[in-house]
User: Which sequence fits this backbone?
């Protein structure tokens, strides 16, 4: 009833979606933190250190894919 049929000529800018690989790396990071905590609580220091190293790697991957997605979104490039 209130729609007049006119549409705005200015396109809406949606926020850029988080790249899928960044989400996967973030999930691995969170799970590795939980595994490191469990390992240290159970007294397995060496396994805990391996989990902490995995946390560092996956957090760096998360930042990399986030920045890569933002630069591609700002460039307007879709492919490769």
Assistant:
């Amino acid at each position: 009833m209130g729609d007049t049929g006119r549409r705005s000529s200015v396109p809406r800018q949606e926020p850029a979606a988080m790249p899928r690989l960044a989400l996967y790396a973030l999930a691995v990071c969170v799970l590795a933190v939980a595994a490191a905590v469990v390992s240290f609580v159970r007294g397995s220091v060496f396994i805990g250190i391996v989990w902490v190293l995995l946390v560092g790697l996956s957090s760096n991957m998360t930042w990399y894919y986030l920045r890569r997605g933002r630069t591609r979104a700002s460039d307007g490039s879709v492919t490769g």
The CA atoms of residues 11 and 76 lie 15 Å apart. Helices lie at 20-41, 45-75.
